[in-house]
Specification:
Blueprint (H helix, E strand, L loop, with lengths): L6 E7 L4 E4 L5 E14 L5 E13 H10 L5 E14 L5 E16 L12 E4 L7
Parallel strand pairs: 4-6
Antiparallel strand pairs: 1-3, 1-5, 2-3, 3-4, 5-6, 6-7
């Protein structure tokens, strides 16, 4: 049986992005995404919860995301789930799951110099640019 790892999310950025570079000089940007879920429980009462999901983009896609995504921006992303592991300064092992963005649609954005917040832009990651 094959494995499948694909995620689609629609939400709003929880913070402004910051562009940085890996030691191999690959651009990387990350941001939080708030995604709401609404449903009715067995008693018919409306319920809602908000999930906060870390997202990351690399290379040319990272530069585009940094340009158009700011706190409050609405985006639709397609990507895959990845486990990141590292050791912090206190020598503790740390890990987190992130969504690596492969495709993104900017539904509204905060950092657009032209001021056009209704225009929809689609951007796709280059397969060779993945870190």
């Amino acid at each position: 049986m094959s494995n499948f790892n694909k995620i689609h999310l629609l939400g709003r950025a929880t913070r402004d992005t910051i562009l940085r570079y890996t030691p191999a000089e690959i651009a990387v940007v990350d941001f939080g995404l708030a995604v709401n879920r609404r449903w009715q429980d067995a008693k018919g009462q409306k319920k809602e919860e908000c999930m906060f999901i870390e997202c990351v983009a690399y290379a040319g896609l990272a530069r585009t995301v940094e340009k158009y995504v700011g706190k409050g921006s609405s985006v639709f992303i397609e990507g895959f789930l990845q486990l990141q592991q590292w050791t912090d300064k206190q020598k503790n092992k740390r890990s987190r799951h992130v969504v690596v963005i492969k495709n993104i649609q900017f539904l509204s954005y905060a950092n657009n110099a032209a001021g056009d917040t209704q225009k929809e832009i689609k951007e796709t990651a280059d397969e060779s640019s993945e870190a």
